[in-house]
Amino acid sequence: MWLIFTAMLALAIVAFVMAAIFREDAYRAANKNNKGFWLIILGLAVAVNLFVPWLFLQLAGLVATIVFFVDVRPALQQVSGGRGGKGFWKRGRGGSSSDGPYGPYNGGR
């Protein structure tokens, strides 16, 4: 049981950090609630997992965390044009839009 509660806490912390990394305008562009809303909801999920031993509230926090991972995060990634919000995960992804699998495409020249 302790392992399940620890996993729920870790998942809530990861979701909170990811919600904090994405930019505010990405939330508006993805037509999701604003960044403050998700930070409050996920912060409450972390606090409940840490301090309140009631399973019902912890499950509510888990549902909020899953909604963030399944619905909000993919929409934010799509709007942000990649994997991360501020370029944290974008290292090493250089190149051009005309690059093929074996290097740049130059139109047969």
Task: Describe the overall structure.
- 63% of the residues lie in helices and 4% in strands.
- The protein has 109 residues and is mainly α.
- The chain has a two-stranded antiparallel ribbon with strand order 1-2.
- A hairpin with a 2-residue loop joins β1 (99-100) and β2 (103-104).
- The N and C termini lie far apart (64 Å).
Would you kindly provide a brief summary of this structure?
This protein has about 110 residues and is mainly α. About 65% of the residues lie in helices and about 5% in strands.
- Can you tell me the residue ranges where pLDDT is under 50 for at least 5 consecutive residues? 85-92
Number of H/I helices? 4
Based on secondary structure, the structural category is mainly alpha
Computed CA radius of gyration, to the nearest angstrom: 18 Å
Percent range for helical residues?
Answer: 55-70%
How is the largest sheet built, in terms of strand order? 1-2
Average pLDDT confidence is: 83
* Terminal residue distance: 64 Å
From the spread of the alpha carbons, the general shape counts as: elongated
Order of helices and strands: HHHHEE
Question: What is the number of beta strands?
Answer: 2
Strand percentage lies at under 5%
Topology:
Elements lengths: L1 H20 L2 H6 L5 H17 L3 H26 L18 E2 L2 E2 L5
Antiparallel strand pairs: 1-2
Helix pairs in contact: 1-3, 1-4, 3-4
Features:
109 residues, mainly alpha, two-stranded antiparallel ribbon, elongated
